[in-house]
Each structure stands twice: as structure tokens, then as C-alpha cells.
Amino acid sequence: MRLLATTNPGLEFVACDEVQDLIGVDAERRYRGAIVFNADASAVPRLNRRARSLHRVLAVLRDRSVPDVGLDDTYDLTRSAGVEEWVAPEQSIAVRPTRHGEHAFTSPEVGERVGQAVVDACRAAGERPTVDLDDPDVVFRAFVRDEDVLLAVDTTGERSLHRRPYRVREHDAPLRPTIAWSMVALSGFEAGDTLLDPTCGSATIPTEAALDVLDRPPSPGRSYDFEHLSPFADVAPHDPGGRDRLPSGTAVEGREVDADRVADARANVAAADLEDVVSVRRADATR
Fold first, then answer.
1. Is the pLDDT of residue 10 over 90?
2. Domain extents for the chain?
3. Which end of the chain, C or N, has fewer beta carbons within 10 A?
4. Mean of the per-residue pLDDT values for the chain?
């Protein structure tokens, strides 16, 4: 199975390293903010549930370079992609299009053409899917970048993986959790170390560090689209795993001078069930 994962632009190399650590395959940068790799179906649940640097995991159905690409090309590539195998009877669909470059058509037109191809392919297979743009069961993502056309099924869902459930409080300039974790990974923090964030804001960096060193999933309890996609029907239930206590000699701490931000940080730490793990105190990092 060909997979594409989206991530933070400029940090694709961090995402490639994490994919290697999680599922043992080599990934490469496909374009800005996206990496590609080959893996079997069992990798999809693990990446969605455990990856800390990724935003979405997509199953690639078509990836072609088409000179002078037009809307008819997007239709033809979709009709021949086997999309009907991903849509079960009574499931609804939606297409989320993205377009970059100079073209004689718009992103909405890509979405309409690809959507029609999906419906036609399903009807030819004896199915009659409904289109639901608000709450679809199956989301197809269509990318047209210059002459490249890529069609994929979203295995993650409408809610990006970077939207962590512990983020119950935010300040005016919050740090994206996937960037925070990437910073922790690049720092080399591991069991036995002390991590201190002297200007922790809403405690995103300490929280990501603690969840990682405890081997807890970043978004426990959330649902994913792969759970109702037929290619993943036989995937074993997930064991959340993780530890309750930090390894011996490990400490994770945050400091913040603003009292309101300290309250925000503590609320987020509590939402992540890390009150006994992450220490947040009011302090001035300049003194």
C-alpha cells in the first residue's frame, strides 16, 4: 500500500525518522509538507494512533504526472482507481480538493469532477453512495499540483492529528503540538533526562515530551476514518499501552511568568492526565 502523510513544512525529515521508528520503513519527501512510503495495511492504525509529527495519513490510489492536465484527466484517473472498493453500501462520500499552480480550472471544479467519477464508479459496481459534504463516511482527497494528480483516501478523518484533545486552553500564539514534539525529538530528550521549558506558555512542549516518554498515545479515545474503511476491517483492536510514572531520573517541567498562562498550562496538563508527571510553576526565566 502506498501511503502519503502530511506534516509541518520544513520538518519532513523529522516525520520520515518517526515513520521509520514506528513501522520500520523508509519514507521520503513528496512535496512541501508531505512524505510518501510503502507499508502494509497494519501500519495505518499504528501511524494514526501513535505518530506525533503527522497530520494526516492518506492511502494513495493514483499518483500521476499528466502534461497539460485538465478536468477530464482527473475524472479518468479517478474512474480507474478502484474507488468503489473503499465505499461500502450505504456509506456517504465527500471529496476535498487542493490545487497548486496555473490551471484553467478551480479547486471546486476538481472536487466536482472527481466526485462525479467516484459516484459513477460506485454506481457501475451496483452501489449508490450519497454525497455528504458535512459529515461523510469516506473522504477522498484530490491534489493537483502543476502537472501532478494525486488521489487518496483519508484514513485519519476530518480532524487533523495535530489537534490534540488536551488542548483545552490556548493563548494568542499557541505552538502546534506536532511542532512541539518535533522540537522535543530534535533535542534528543529521552528517559533519564530532565526537560525544562522556561517559557512554557500553555505547556505544549512539556506535555508532548511527557506523553512521548511515557509511551502514551497523543490523542487517546478519538476515532479515525480507517475504523470504518473495508481494507482495515481485520485490524486488531488497539492496546493503548503507556506508563503511569516517568522512568527513574526523568523530569518534565514548565515555567511561565504570566499567572493566566500558568493556569492555562496546568489545565492542559490535567486534561492530558499528567498532573502527577509534569510540574508547572510560575517563574521569570530572565531571573
1. yes
2. 2-154, 177-282
3. C
4. 94
| Rounded-to-integer distance, Cα 125 and Cα 84, Å | 7
Name the one residue in this structure whose C-alpha cell is 476530518.
Answer: 158
Q: pLDDT by residue (tens digit) across 29-53?
A: 999 999 999 999 999 999 999 999 9
From residue 193, give the alpha-carbon distance in Å to each of 30, 148, 249, 258: 34, 45, 7, 26
CATH number for the domain whose boundaries are 177-282: 3.40.50.150
pTM: 0.94
Q: In what order do the strands lie in the sheet with 2-7?
A: 28-31, 34-38, 2-7, 54-65, 148-154, 138-145, 92-100, 130-131
CA angle (152 as vertex; 147, 156 as ends), nearest 5: 135
Higher pLDDT among residues 192 and 233, named by residue: 192
List Cα–Cα distances, 237 to 42, 162, 221, 232, 263, in angstroms: 11, 22, 12, 11, 36
